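To: structure subgroup
Subject: Chain for Friday's discussion

All,

I'm putting the inputs and outputs inline so they're searchable in the archive.
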Amino acid sequence: MATLVLGAIGTLVAGPLGGAIGTLAGRQLDQQIIGSRTREGPRLQDLKASTSSYGQPIAVHAGRVRTAGTIVWATDLVEESETGGGGKGTPRTRTYSYSTSFAVLLASHPVERIGRIWADGNLLRGAAGDLKTGGAFRFHAGHADQEPDPLLAAALGERCPAFRGSAYAVFESLDLADFGNRIPALTFELFAGPGAEVFARLAGPAGIKADPDLVVPGLEGFSYDGGGIDTALDLLGRAAPLLVEQDRTPPLIRPAAIRSRPPPLLGPPVAWPDAEFGSATGERRMRATDVEKYGALRYYDIDRDYQPSVQHAMHRAAAGQIRTLDFPASLSARAARALVQKMARQDRARDITLLHRTSAIDAGILPGAIVRVPGEAGLWSVTAWEWRDGGVELELERCFAPMPLSEAGPPVADPGAAWTPPDRLPGVTRLRVFELPWDGTGSPDDRQIYAALSASDGRWAGASLHAERDGGLVPLGIAADRRSVTGLATSALSASPGLVFEPDASLDLLLDDTAMVLVPTTREGIASGDNRLLVGDEILQFRDAMPLGGARWRVTGLLRGRGGTESAAMAGHGAGARVALLDERLVGLTGNTAGLASTRLAALDASGADPVVAPVEGFGRTLVPLCPVHPRVRHLADGGMELRWTRRARGIWSWPEQVEIPLIEQSERYEIGAGDIGADGTASPGVLIETDRPSARIESDVLSGLPASTPIWVRQVGTHAKSPALLVTRA
């Protein structure tokens, strides 16, 4: 604040020069009042991205950490194209996607396992080991006998390294569509043993032994990527004071506060008969004024996905003496608060320096030794030793002070609120393929086959379609990443003639995904074709949709037997029939239908699961003429019979008044037959007559030859198929 105020005043009084002088004076005043915030330790990286550069150190890790690693090998981008869209009323589009393969070196030593992986801040690999996008992932733990990765070996040949003794990860054909067609910024969660092993992992390669009791309380992980073993141990010594016993082979680092026997107790102070200090008591107490104290700790918070966080000591340091320690460790907020409290307490203890004179000579009390002082609390470190005429003069610095009662309990700390990317398991792909009656768009000779691609609850990045032929899968070059609304009917649906709107009819559904939504409409909307639902082989429309909780819905106000599916409506449906909403999310296969009569379709997603295979339902339905309606019979005086009916045309779903329905087939032809007719269209005794108009006359001698009550029916003969038969009357 003083920096701003004095800088502004100086500018007003003496111009730019006066402003610079005022700013300098204000900064000095702020440092005295507020304190200078110095930072110590390796600067914490805000979860930096994986890079690839020569000379970059490979980190040493202990416990659970989040690290970026170094890319050591990569391929060029691979381009692929797929056709999407083509659903109800949507054009086809061709999209291009890119993938690449690369390897990332993660640690300069073996690790236990790998956990989550983040890409551009979002989860690329979940805690369950599932990859959130297309591609394959392999992890090599870094053991001494590990073999080269097969992908790298195929690309590099005999010169392929195995990276023995170093942990690394390999991505094969990673889909880059979600990352702007580039390698994303990656960070990895590693598990490298307990966090307490950090001292042994750092000191071992340097030939130093670490005492098992030497631990940092609450430490869950630690990363160090350069600066030497001495720098690393010095950094850890700020959090866990340690001593190095150089007289042992190998040298031993141990806790400074833990020993097998109590530290030696100095003899009572001796007053020497000279004019110097302590002539009366033999001691002199001084307080340091230039010691910087730790007031804040920066660390990686395990409760916030290892994001850098800061905890401050409860007791404010003196003016001008605030220090922040960058501590590359994985800690909880409470453990970090306890650690910075401990460091601040030790700093306050080091404020006091004691000069102590004694006539007793102990060869073990040398600089670096920890001792006790008569009448003084805590432990003291010998910082200087001087032989005088009257004895030995020791310079002592208090290093361990008793914990104040107010700090004896566990500290209260809050990691704060942080956004973390959701970790959802992949949904199970669902596939239903069906052919629909012609809807009046395009050519009436093109079969309208659609695929309803969907998935259960969970993450789903889409799937590609393949044709199953000759025991293999042939890609169709078609993919979809939008879930169609699919599910099951959980209640039965009774038979219906499908002639009028049924406001009280209802059907309960269980959709495949809880996020799927059904939207109600009006009677006018139904007349316009809204809310078409394929239930089994029947197309119906619904007016109202009510959620029942979870993925359960109830649709009411039904119009049955739409699109020429009245025969399926008259048969009804039992519980368990598959349902699919007929909207723009369907994937159209028009133009890719050659050979589908004898094949099945398969859907492959990015989860690595087995392909989902489905047959083409209602094959040929697009080309089948609609069953004639409105039969009329007139018995003639000579014993004959005159038949009339109303024709219907494929794709013409309205009934225009006083207008003849246009003919869709190449010619108008009908068969009039007698006897039972099977599902395959065969009849017994067979066809009686054929006609090219929606009427016919059956002579009396033909009728007399038929058994009593023989069904008489009519069906249209279309360009590609024959329609279902309409029962006209009985003989």
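Points worth raising on Friday:
The first strand starts at residue 37 and ends at 40.
Residues 13-25, 27-36, 404-408 have pLDDT under 50 and may be disordered.

D.
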